[in-house]
Specification:
The protein is α/β, with parallel strands linked by helices. The chain has helices spanning 3-16, 18-24, 52-68, 82-91, 108-113, 121-126, 131-134, 137-141, 165-170, 180-189, 214-218, 238-253, 257-264, 290-297, 338-350, 352-362, 369-372, 384-391, 406-420, 426-444; strands at 41-46, 72-77, 99-102, 144-145, 148-149, 152-164, 192-194, 197-203, 282-288, 304-307, 324-331. It is built from 20 helices and eleven strands. Strands 1, 2, 3, 6, 7, 8, 9, 10 and 11 form a nine-stranded mixed β-sheet that branches.
Length: 445
């Protein structure tokens, strides 16, 4: 199960829990970091994985750690979301976790600014670990906020273009598109009407179309979400208007919002065998690395191709980039065993074999530079596309914010209004949304 699958399930809940989170943390840690990690001790590790293969994989990772550190015993608790983390950090006490992993990179800003997670810089310095030389650029960036390092990446997700090679051949298309104009032309050429619906849709552009979210599209325009003063930049950076306008045009060209939404309502579950890409009902899809294994498991009747997502025509040189996100790991400020907790965090996030074994087991992108190049990676050749995107210096993510992913939700809401025709003036919509974002951030500080 992909990290983003759980992230998407908790992203809105994370926004709703901001007030709870604020009360969960006093802004200062009153715990000791003087525990002796060489002594016999037990720490608690909370994670969010819940599928049987994932639970088995994370337990194997912990078992490997305990074999290397026989004095540190780890109590593992799974299926934990950010709301549960927030509640535990507020309550403290013996039931609170020592090590925490989260699927919501959006909350890193909140974890760091509120001191809910401890600053890992001293631990990294003590062990001579340079994050900039250990983790891919974007993953290194999304695990810190305003200069404070309170988390480390624990596997990642990157987004690319999946395409039906058989459908491409039938339409006379010889290679995947590299620019958005090529993509738009291909999407129309691949679309086959059937009455008031479709026999085959070239691409489902709607923002509710599984992974076709605003931030995944916009990454290809390399947007700057905030200015140097921390104010929303969406009304000033032309990337946002261009990205929203492109998606709206694509919606119109492929049949219009109402027709597309009617077709989308007939789709199977995103993570099931009846996903419309798996069944050939859509010929192209924007999706993460996990889709390849899931699609193959569904035994498709066509050959699957994978390529980087297209870029704007005037940004051809940046083709190969994409949107990155992933799982993070940190140490709870309420922990009284932070040195022992650090040993587990260090092992899971920086030990090459541990990262590779975990990535192999759950088919996510490795989160260290060494692991990305490891000969032990078990790869379908097409998976290399996701590894390259993860290492591409032009790849981006949505930056951390003091109130988590609330600004992303605001932008997504605007996207829904634009694609449906409720907001025809994109510039005005961006200006209003920027004000909304700034007001919410000011309130959260």
């Amino acid at each position: 199960m992909p990290a983003f699958r759980r992230k998407s399930a908790v992203a809105l809940a994370a926004t709703a829990s901001i007030a709870l989170f604020a009360s969960a943390c006093t802004g200062q840690s009153n715990t000791s970091t003087k525990d002796d990690a060489s002594k016999e001790t037990t720490i608690t590790f909370w994670h969010g994985w819940n599928a049987p293969n994932e639970v088995k994989a994370i337990q194997a990772n912990v078992d490997a750690f305990q074999k290397a550190h026989p004095n540190i015993h780890v109590k593992v608790v799974g299926d934990i979301n950010d709301d549960k983390i927030n509640q535990a950090l507020r309550a403290g006490g013996s039931t609170a976790p020592d090590v925490v992993s989260s699927f919501t990179t959006n909350n890193v800003g909140k974890f760091c600014s509120s001191n809910a997670f401890v600053d890992l810089a001293p631990f990294l310095a003590k062990d001579g670990i340079d994050p900039a030389k250990t983790f891919p650029k974007t993953m290194n960036e999304y695990t810190q906020f305003q200069g404070k390092r309170c988390a480390l990446p624990l596997l990642g997700d990157s987004y690319a273009l999946y395409y039906n090679k058989d459908a491409f051949k039938a339409a006379g298309i010889t290679e995947p598109p590299t620019t958005w104009s090529q993509f738009a032309a291909d999407a129309k050429a691949l679309t086959k009407a059937k009455g008031d619906s479709y026999e085959q849709l070239g691409f489902m552009p709607d923002y509710h179309g599984y992974e076709t979210t605003t931030e995944h599209y916009l990454a290809q325009w390399s947007p700057t979400y905030f200015d140097a003063d921390g104010k929303s930049n969406i009304a000033k950076d032309p990337a946002f208007e261009k990205g929203l306008a492109f998606q709206k045009q694509l919606v119109d060209d492929l049949g219009g919002f109402t027709k597309l939404e009617k077709y989308r309502s007939t789709f199977g579950a995103e993570f099931g065998d009846q996903n419309p890409f798996n069944t050939g009902r859509v010929a192209m899809a924007m999706d993460g690395e996990w889709r390849l294994g899931m699609a193959m498991d569904s035994k498709p009747k066509f050959e699957i191709g994978v390529a980087p997502l297209p870029v704007p025509d005037d940004m051809r040189a940046t083709h190969g980039k994409g949107y990155l996100t992933g799982t993070i790991a940190g140490i709870a400020a309420t922990s009284k065993k932070q040195n022992a907790a650090w040993e587990l965090v260090k092992f899971m996030t920086t030990n090459t074999d541990a990262v590779v074994d975990f990535a192999n087991a759950i088919h996510n992108v490795p989160s260290t530079l060494d692991a990305l190049k490891s000969p032990k990676l078990q790869l379908d050749p097409r998976f290399k596309t996701f590894l390259d995107i993860a290492q591409n210096p032009n790849s981006t993510t949505t930056p951390a914010s003091v109130n988590g992913g609330q600004y992303i939700t605001s932008l997504q809401n605007l996207g829904y209004e634009v694609e449906s025709g409720k907001q025809s003036d994109i510039k005005a919509g961006l200006a209003k949304t920027a004000q909304e974002i700034d007001a919410a951030i000011a309130q959260a500080k």
